[in-house]
Amino acid sequence: MIRSPPPDLKPLPMPRALRRLLLALACALAPWAHAAGAAPLTIVAAESTYGAIASAIGGSHVRVVSLIRNPDVDPHSFEATPQAARSVAQARLVLMNGLGYDSWMTRLLAANPVAGRKVLVAAELLPARRLADGNPHVFYDPEVGLRMADEVADWLRHADPAHAADYTAADQAMRARLAGVLRRAADLARSYPRLRVTGTEPVWGYMIRQLGWHNLHQGLQIHVMNGTEPSPREMAGFDADLRARRVSLLIHNRQVDSALTRRMLRLAHACGVPSLGVDEFTPEGTGYPDWLLQSLDAAAAALARPPAPSAACHA
Questions:
Q1: What is the second-level CATH architecture of the domain 192-314?
Q2: Tens digit of each residue's pLDDT (9 = 90 or more) over 133-173
Q3: What would the mean pLDDT of 39-64 be, rounded to a whole number?
Q4: What's the pTM value of the predicted model, to 2 decimals?
Q5: How far, in Å, are 36, 50, 228 from residue 82 at the CA level?
Q6: In a 10 Å sphere around its CB, with 0-12 CB exposed, 13-18 middle and 19+ buried, how is residue 153 labelled?
Q7: Does residue 115 sit in helix, strand or coil?
Q8: Rounded Cα–Cα distance for residues 59 and 31 (Å)
Q9: What CATH architecture does domain 40-181 belong to?
């Protein structure tokens, strides 16, 4: 028989300090609780390139915020906004490039600490042997896409086990698409073996290495990337190779426009050296593997139709 408590028996009041502690714990844990039917998990990517990978793996189960997605923005000098800080503070998973490319994100993370937040740094996913002289443009290495996709899928399976099968399938699809990128790169390398190329910046450096091509004048490219003046000797060597057509392709960063890069492009065109323009960010609506394929297809098209040399080459 269940006995009813005496009518004058009342529960003891909860101490005020304990109530405050329980309320604080509830507020702290609320953003991390995720169950079927809950709001999508929030992932913040420093750049849209990594945001595209996260979107492909998470699908409708995630909300991806890419802080830099405008191709006209220079990531080296990006100034984080209060809105960006709020996004980082709400994120359970943060994706960034590393190698000083997005050091502003490191500062944002330090200013908005959150217990349990996972940070994936693309450059740290590669073995040291694949890092080319500290070149920060690791997103043009297909291996980065493979490893980032695997890491995102693994994190999502643990954070949201109800949709683990979806994340695994998306990861496998990404691997299949990136295998297609590697096949296209191998075809291009066979068509143009051991090509000698150069660039206004080292932005496509990791793909050049994937192709097995020789990247000349890398010191000059680093000067341009860092906004410092190349030496007269470096410029003379660069000019001589273009005029003698000892290089077959000039790769330029379409996000950087300066008097020096315009001069380099004019000289290449005058001397019959084709040029390839590449970007640092995946455009909105374009998948990461498609973005890599577009750059490979553009390289093939440029090499197939070099400009005719003109008298201006030696002017």
A1: 3-Layer(aba) Sandwich (3.40)
A2: 889 999 999 999 999 999 999 999 999 999 999 999 999 99
A3: 96
A4: 0.86
A5: 31, 21, 31
A6: buried
A7: coil
A8: 20
A9: 3-Layer(aba) Sandwich (3.40)
